[in-house]
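idk why but the lab printer keeps eating my pages so im just putting this in chat instead. protein + LLP:
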Amino acid sequence: MTTVDVALHASHADELSVWPASTVPLPCGDLAVGGVPLAEAAGAFGTPVYLLDEAEVRDRCRTYAHAFPHADIHYAAKAFLCRTMARWVAEEGLGLDVCSAGELEVAVAAGVPPERIILHGNAKSPEDLNAALRAGVGRVTVDSLSEVTRLAAAVGIHDEPVKVLVRVAPGVSAGAHEKMRTGTGTRKSGLSVTDGSAQHAIARVLAQPELELTGLHCHLGSQITSVKPYLTAVRRMIGLMSHIHRSYGYTTRELDLGGGHGIPYRPEETALDITALARTLRTEMSEGCAAVGLPVPRLLIEPGRAVVGPAGVVVHRVLSVKHTEAGTLVAVDGGTSDNPRPALYGVRCTPRLAGRLSLAGPARVTMVGRHCEAGDILATDVQLPGDIRPGDLLAVPAAGAYHLSMTSADNLVGRPPVVAVADGKARLLVRRETLDDLSIRDVG
Ligand code: LLP
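predcted complex ->
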């Protein structure tokens, strides 16, 4: 390799660090993911199209299993769910965290053993609770005082007690954005330790013969890149376990620390170090429990984004390029309807030209969507080749989590398909939403 080749190779490697590990640049300027060129996938399935790299999902499940050999790992289905995704994670030995009867149905239909499913939700509907009881889920996380009573009342007199975790807000605030932080009592999820509502709910669960308190749960927030908040949370959760033991002589045997593990969306960002997290939690749990004379509980974790986020790539087609006084606007055939994250959290994605080689110099542009919303902006001030034009393909990495699961039918555009890529083959998992799909609900 010449010096220039080495430099190019290094810049590719850096730029591709947030892409699935299988990603390779092709001589024609395109990229292949899972052995499938992006332009080929766009041609076969249309755009926008979401690709999910099966090997990347499976590798990430294995990384967790390896780092946490003694924990129960539940994939947080809200990050993205379809039957095949549920099957992949179950085959890798993970359970599932679901937060509605809908997610539960997909999980059960995919063959996930119900005892490996946890039902969450800050406000579960009667349908959610009944579906969970019918399916025989492994755990229900209770998140309000009234839910304790409602759940107990829904259990049949001849049924086994339902295994319950109490969702606690331990007073630790973490996460990349204000709207992603859940660990304090002022948020809608969790019962506060500070104002005593967690202790109250625990007392109520213990008083209900229909419910069996197996442990405590907390989820601090999302897109957390430091181990520190987890450490503080563990100390507080052990404090609460100790309080339960002192007050009722009852030992909780499970501690679920939720998910929230951060991933890089851009090359300069970092991921939460899973191995360091596992090591720190193990030490803290054994020392903390020894100090208060409690056995170490079984650890449960619920990563969503870190399992599926980096495995997803979205490909949009450019519909128009406008040169305005404020700069160049590159509009694509999707937007907030398939990726509401930039509008909701002000995050920026990193688009890249796919499908052709460009020798043009770089230009700073803003990538916008096609929706009738001034805020439908996907990426502000990003670098793309200066000759970007309608018909071009733009691909965005780290698109596997909280894009598709948060899609909407805005402007009745129809939601994009999901395609699994592996070993050079592309397989449709979820088909594109058509106008027929949309109009079928319009029965008036
Ligand atoms: N467990 C519970 C109880 C949760 O509420 C969540 C996420 C998770 C686990 C998984 O968190 P993860 O590992 O994926 O960060 N829409 C936001 C993220 C909301 C997360 C809500 N709860 C986003 O696009 O960033």
